[in-house]
Fold:
Amino acid sequence: MGNQKLEKKDRMKIPRATMPEQDPRERIKNFSEVPFGLTEELALTEAARCLECAKAPCIAGCPVEVDIPGFIELILDRDYAAAARKIKETNSLPAICGRVCPQEEQCEVVCILAKKFKPVAIGYLERFVADYERNNDLVELPPIAPLTGFKVAVVGSGPAGLTVAGDLIKLGHQVTIFEALHKTGGVLVYGIPEFRLPKRIVQAECDYLASMGVEFRKSTVIGKSDTIDELFEIGYDAIFIGTGAGLPNFMGIPGENLIGIYSSNEYLTRSNLMRAFDFPNYDTPIIHGRNVAVLGGGNTAMDSVRTALRLGAENAYIVYRRSEAEMPARAEEIHHAMEEGVQFHMLTNPVRFIGDDEGKVTAMECIKMKLGEPDDSGRRRPVPIEGSNFVMNVDLVVVAIGNSSNPLIPRTTPGLETNRWGNIIVDPETMLSSRQGVYAGGDIVTGGATVILAAGAGKKAAKAMHQYLMARKDSLVAGS
Structure:
């Protein structure tokens, strides 16, 4: 099927593709990816729904401004590898973004079709072409500019750092990524479960950057092994900080130090990065609860509660102090959790944890909430209902109420300004910090956000860093 054979009115009648996926009864027994991806036939049919709008609002809706009509047209031409390369002109991580980005809030929400029908499934199509290119060994290296002689250090290998590295290596700069953990990918490997983002996909994206010349140094904690100032001293000309929001937040209520209460960071890191789910191949200790409560309503909470089910929980609860309408998690993730049997306790907030004589959590006292006036986030503020306390029996609790920015680099970098939340302050257009030659982006700047927003910040930073370095080159030439 191709759009050249269909009038616009006929394209509008094509129903949006439904992604084939594992049956919920089967998938809660494994960690394999839930959606299977579009078949070629489904991809072609879905691509034919694109109206080829002259102004293409979907491009403006994308934080990295992917040429969406352009890559969809290449799908209709059945040139899937070229479609993937078209995306990579502005987005280095299409296989990742096609899986975990909230397209429904960005490029798809402004799709013209969405005014009367369902929008084009842009994310599904992005995943299809990226997977096709990789699975058929059609990945090609982009043109690399002649070496500029400048060295750039990228601290952190999450989506912001990977994007900066990919853009700057193409411009001829020498790029080294420093990663604190023993695997590259940052939050993509420690924070997102295998069933939502297989680690081989992340590794393939990192391998792609390495093949372009990006150097990766793992198990290197900048701020301890070397400071930002010491990186300059050993010859780096510009530095990008993309260390993320890895400091877990807790509720500060009685009993929070009981055995069996995890931060979502620790719980997901043990399962994802340290592969506790893959026992006995990996003997990483993790508590297997029968009655598991996950506190929070974001994507991390959904990842945690769905992980608990796959690790054998008989009852897996989401405990959230607002209603479902206020939940920040993607609708798709909430839907998948509900399909899998997760039990939702909305308008509910813990007030204390109860333990046994061995210091292990056995229960959680909660209070019911009602919604009051909107707070700073624009969502209605939850207000406790006096006298509505009740007790839930739990033997594992995962606290997924958000994270704060990693404080290590700000603490060890004199003159690096941060706000009251510990986020690095930058110019929003250039991502330049208060230190010359030091740029930052992603969750270390915004707090916990999305993969594609971090990638967008990385693109801005790379552009500004290139301009900064080339201006330095011009001044050096002029002064010689």
About this structure: The mean pLDDT is 93. The first strand starts at residue 151 and ends at 155. The first helix runs from residue 8 to 12. The chain has 18 helices and 16 strands.
